[in-house]
Amino acid sequence: MNTTGRLAGVILFFIAMIFAWVPPTRAEDVADLYRKGYNAQKAGNLKEAMGIYEGCLKADPKNYKALLAMGTVYLAMGEYRKATEQFRSVLALYPDDPRTRLYLANSRLKAGFIGEAKNDYEMILSEYPEDVPALIGLARAEYLLGNRFTAVDFLKQALALQPGNTALKATVDRVESAARQNLAEEERERHARLMSDLENAIAEASLSEERARAALSAAGIPEHLSPAQKMILLDLSEPAALPEVRAFPRFPKR
Q1: Radius of gyration (Cα) for the chain, nearest Å?
Q2: Angle, helix 46-59 to helix 64-77, in steps of 10 degrees
Q3: Each residue's pLDDT tens digit, 137-158
Q4: What is the pLDDT of residues 211-226, one digit of tens each?
Q5: If we measure between CA atoms, which residue out of 243, 241, 237, 236 comes closest to residue 103?
Q6: Angstrom distance (rounded) from CA 176 to CA 182
Q7: Residue 75: what are its φ and ψ, rounded to 5°?
Q8: What is the dihedral of CA 32, 37, 41, 42, to 10 degrees?
Q9: Where would I find the H helices in 43-79?
Q10: Which residues contact 92 (CB under 8 A, 6 or more apart)?
């Protein structure tokens, strides 16, 4: 066979492969694909996970978990503006979902949209006034806006709801100390550390319960990850491994 014939054969082979692949359409097939994406994300293979989630959405464009998961992958990549846009698109489909609004608020805070993040946290608390992660998020927003004693007040409200959360207690003490010292603007590194500690305290608020620790083990989530990363993966895990550690409903109805 000459070169032209071989080339034509290769082209025909790839065309046949393209048409032979049919995107999954059954709910169980999409669920299987989602699990592959989740496992890739859990292993730290973020680009692979993103590609798989995109495959889920080709078959089911309104798949809540795949849409939400894509936003969390952007967060893990440090693409905070893309994460914000992703969570906004999820919220457009599921406007009453407090879980998505919390992710949107967190991504907006990281992207520098502090006022918008504050509004999101306040919206969540208007319906779920005892949601500790939202209280801590609102405290972070107030702190970044310069309202440090207001931030301390919200943190104390959160601590009153979870008095056994030692990580939160330590961070509250540090934030209150920083507020009293009126830290100068140039001490940005210390501000950044406090914000990072509060982010992990948000996760600790949900992970501190025994049911949550059992769920982490059941879902096979690696121990070396930060509390914030663990909470995201627990949120995205299969319902069988997800305990009711939050006031939010598990997943919004289609």
Answers
A1: 21
A2: 160
A3: 999 899 888 888 899 999 999 8
A4: 666 777 777 777 777 7
A5: 236
A6: 10
A7: -60, -45
A8: 10
A9: 46-59, 64-77
A10: none
| CA-based end-to-end distance of the chain | 56
Looking at the predicted structure, is the pLDDT value of residue 177 above 60? yes
Quick one: tokens of 182?
């009126």
CB 242 within 8 A of CB 50: no
Domains located in the chain, CATH noted: 24-127 (1.25.40.10), 130-207 (no CATH), 209-242 (no CATH)
Would you say 58 and 70 are in contact if contact means Cβ atoms under 8 Å apart? no
Judged by DSSP in three states, 52 sits in helix
Contacts of 33 (CB under 8 A, 6+ apart): 24, 52, 55, 56, 59
The sign one gets for the Cα dihedral 32, 34, 37, 42 is negative
Q: What is the DSSP string of 170-194?
A: HHHHHHHHHHHHT--TT-HHHHHHH
User: How many CB atoms within 10 Å of residue 27?
Assistant: 11
Check pLDDT > 70 for residue 5.
no
- DSSP assignment of 196-252 equals HHHHHHHHHHHHTSHHHHHHHHHHT--TTS-HHHHHHHHHHS-GGG----SSS-SS-
Element (H, E) at 23: none
Dihedral-angle region of residue 181 (phi above 0 means left; psi in -120 to 50 means alpha; beta otherwise)? alpha
Which residue type occupies 99?
R
Letter for the amino acid at 193?
A: R
- Write the CB contacts of 7 (distance below 8 Å, at least 6 apart in sequence): none
Closest among 203, 241, 219 to 43, alpha carbons compared: 219
